[in-house]
Amino acid sequence: MALATTTDVAKALGRSLTTADTDRATMLLETASSEAVRVAGGYAFAPGSYTRTLLVRGCKSVIRAKVATIAAVRTVDPTTGAETTLTGWTSRGSRLYQLGCDGEVEVDFTVTDAIPAEIVAAVAGIVAATLGAPPVGAQSESTGPFSVSYVDSSGRVWLSASDRSLFAKYRRAPRAIRLV
Fold it and tell me: Fewest CB atoms within 10 Å of the CB: 10, 34, 69, 106?
């Protein structure tokens, strides 16, 4: 699923897209969106149902999404894989407050809100930058005894450091490693 539309790309580019640009933008949107999801560690940013493993610290945990409903909360024994459904929890928005503090829980939840505007803008901006780059190809220029060769854009989607830091806000907490 693309996290932005060709209309968003046209706004970011500051001009309307040609038919060829629209076809290329559609492909680049898929690539940029999948890269954004990969960098963010799997959060899909889109409305739907999700299951996430969360670390509980100080009896609370945060789901990094605008949660509509939480269907179930359970613990999973790391040695046997046995699941225990928890009932002693409450939620306020995306914060989950847990009885039986600290550890790891699996949460089933739904998200109904639209894709965050900052994600749409970032993905559209990445695609617009790729479309607005010089054409792909190698060039060589010479003047007297001096010459220079360079390669223009590869046409690939690249995430800048600021893009990565934006998507990192949505990164899931890593799974805990049990040492005992």
Answer: 69
